[in-house]
């Protein structure tokens, strides 16, 4: 094992999987039985023993030593570690009460991943753990507990974090976002002026003119032609073209809107001291493009239910497939027989489907079909499907993909802060008695 790998392993020895999962906690490992043990706290209906606290203290000392950090006085360190042990116990209790569990298959996959990251197979990894003086079965359960706490936090804390569309817009027009993406925008602009102190009637009339121009643009009229004829802006005689600019160089009134538009889309009217504005995004450049292959498909579903077992559902799906092969259309049969209420009335039409939208079995079968081809019956958790591919296209999902990335980024930034708030809440609402 190389020096760098060994350092990584020492961190795992001290922290378990916490660092790998992004957790800030180290969960309880049942200590070896001792002749002498005593109760240090009661959490709900669970006892926390001195042996657990001592093992946790040893883990923390190892962690601090690996990082070159001098530990605080022993009594302060003990108090801190006991409080963290109490919080972990509360979280594990809540996870069990919610019926959450980490099955052996998921746990083994995680252990394999840890071993591979350390350049070992699982057997060698377990031997290395034993060589470090740790019991592999206990280590394995520690990993399970840390995964369980991570799963609980994702559920309980994740559902509390809401990122609004306005917040996404603000981030997309921020210096940070623009610096990351290197995007530039070519924007068309129409200005309808207002006097310095307009009356309500003048303002209303100007907005009405702007709405009428917007309707003409949305109906397909050329933006630059309308700008020449109607705009009072500085660039009116250039078709209102503001040229290539970063979002930071655009008027702030426009920036929040521009980053949400696709080329050819219009926005407005907006009010400013100089008047009422309409804009159109003419072009964009820079930034990574996110292209995906979309499939337009339809299907019919034969569900497994109280009246029809799996074998019967499969047999019915095969019979319907045979009728399609004989000349009937999947759309007609879906309207009559499909058990999918969301698509039945439209003849099984699913619209344009992007990767990841459908369950894996369905998507895998759909991707293997040629345009116009109908699949054999395909099993999923919902029942048996017969699928037909109608068309394929490459779609530019850059804007929606970017928005999803920003939503995730903003949620992750709030996660740790929200975890701390949630931990204080569950600590305050759980009965805890500290004995020593």
From TrEMBL:
**GO MF terms held by the record:** peptidyl-prolyl cis-trans isomerase activity
> Cellular location of this protein?
Periplasm
What range(s) does the PpiC domain occupy? 182-283, 292-391
Q: Name one Pfam family in it.
A: Rotamase
Sorted keywords for this record are: Chaperone, Isomerase, Periplasm, Repeat, Rotamase, Signal
Give the main localization category.
periplasm
User: Which principal EC class is assigned to this enzyme?
Assistant: isomerase
Catalyses which reaction? Answer: [protein]-peptidylproline (omega=180) = [protein]-peptidylproline (omega=0)
- Give the highest taxon in the source lineage: Bacteria
Q: What is its EC number?
A: 5.2.1.8
| Stated role | Chaperone involved in the correct folding and assembly of outer membrane proteins. Recognizes specific patterns of aromatic residues and the orientation of their side chains, which are found more frequently in integral outer membrane proteins. May act in both early periplasmic and late outer membrane-associated steps of protein maturation.
Read off the PANTHER family from this record.
CHAPERONE SURA
Present the record's domain note. The PPIase activity resides only in the second parvulin domain. The N-terminal region and the C-terminal tail are necessary and sufficient for the chaperone activity of SurA. The PPIase activity is dispensable for SurA to function as a chaperone. The N-terminal region and the C-terminal tail are also required for porin recognition.
Tell me what this protein is called: Chaperone SurA
Species whose genome carries this gene: Marinospirillum alkalitolerans
């Amino acid at each position: 094992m190389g020096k760098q790998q060994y350092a990584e392993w020492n961190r795992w020895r001290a922290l378990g999987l916490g660092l790998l999962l992004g957790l800030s906690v180290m969960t309880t490992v049942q200590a070896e039985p001792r002749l002498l043990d005593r109760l240090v706290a009661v959490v709900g209906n669970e006892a926390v023993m001195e042996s657990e606290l001592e093992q946790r203290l040893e883990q923390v000392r190892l962690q601090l030593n690996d990082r070159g950090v001098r530990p605080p006085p022993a009594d302060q360190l003990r108090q801190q570690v006991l409080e963290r042990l109490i919080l972990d116990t509360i979280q594990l209790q809540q996870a069990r009460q919610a019926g959450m569990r980490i099955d052996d298959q998921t746990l083994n996959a995680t252990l394999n991943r840890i071993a591979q990251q350390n350049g070992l197979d699982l057997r060698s990894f377990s031997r290395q753990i034993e060589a470090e003086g740790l019991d592999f079965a206990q280590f394995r359960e520690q990993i399970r507990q840390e995964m369980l706490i991570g799963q609980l936090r994702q559920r309980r804390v994740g559902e509390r974090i809401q990122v609004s569309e306005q917040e996404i817009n603000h981030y997309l027009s921020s210096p940070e976002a623009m610096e990351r993406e290197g995007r530039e925008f070519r924007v068309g602009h129409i200005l309808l002026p207002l006097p310095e102190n307009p009356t309500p009637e003048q303002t209303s009339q100007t907005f009405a003119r702007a709405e009428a121009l917007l309707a003409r643009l949305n109906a397909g009229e050329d933006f630059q032609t309308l700008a020449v004829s109607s705009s009072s802006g500085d660039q009116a005689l250039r078709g209102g073209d503001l040229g290539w600019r970063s979002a930071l160089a655009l008027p702030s009134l426009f920036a929040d809107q521009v980053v949400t538009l696709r080329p050819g889309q219009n926005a407005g009217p907006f009010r400013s001291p100089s008047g009422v504005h309409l804009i159109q995004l003419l072009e964009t450049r820079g930034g990574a493009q996110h292209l995906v292959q979309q499939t337009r498909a339809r299907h019919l579903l034969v569900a497994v239910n109280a009246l029809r077992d799996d074998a019967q559902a499969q047999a019915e799906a095969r019979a319907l497939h045979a009728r399609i092969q004989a000349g009937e259309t999947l759309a007609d049969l879906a309207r009559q027989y499909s058990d999918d209420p969301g698509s039945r009335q439209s003849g099984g039409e699913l619209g344009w489907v992007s990767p990841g939208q459908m369950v894996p079995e369905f998507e895998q079968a759909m991707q293997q079909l040629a345009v116009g081809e109908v699949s054999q019956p395909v099993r999923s958790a919902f029942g048996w499907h017969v699928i037909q591919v109608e068309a394929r296209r490459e779609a530019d999902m850059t804007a929606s993909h970017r928005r999803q990335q920003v939503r995730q980024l903003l949620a992750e930034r709030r996660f740790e802060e929200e975890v701390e708030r949630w931990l204080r809440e569950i600590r305050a609402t759980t009965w805890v008695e500290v004995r020593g």
